[in-house]
Design brief:
This protein is mainly alpha-helical. It contains eight helices and no strands. Helix 6 crosses helix 7.
Amino acid sequence: MASESDQTSSTSANDSPDQTSSTSSNNGPPVNKIEPLKLPTFEEIRGQEMWNNCAVRSVFSGVLGGLGIFMGLFLGALDNPLMQEQMTARQQFIYTAKQMGSRSWGSAKAFAIMGLIFSGVECAVEKARAKHDTTNTAVAGCVTGGTLSARELKSRRGAKAEGRRRPYNGHLYSRSIQSYGSTQSYGS
């Protein structure tokens, strides 16, 4: 029994100073220390002011939207040629590389434009309303969608006026489906 009491007294003596200093006495609850308030530095204030500028936000989002190039690389790699059985491995590789290149550039432009419009409109609405809530995001999403839709409609009308047919780019496999449908007869 005496050895057990010696062990307990030695463990209490080995306690960390944080545990023993947090209590003012054995009777009362532990006292939590209040940390001093840290004011932002001049550089932090300057950085926050710069980030609150709508033009800076829009350009930054547009540049990061350009990372959509990776989405285009991925989707281009998934696009298989329709005449796959008749193509050699080299021809299939060249076809896939061209598809990846064209889809990468198209995706990079689309994501950059979406990021630029969305963040610019969201920032402008936030400044006008002087509130930071989900309404700003919803309005920015509606304006972005409407702008991109109007842009697509304008390019389709321009293609129709020139006498060429431009496929709808909104669907992932629209080009393959359209070309497959033009060579396949469903009636027989």
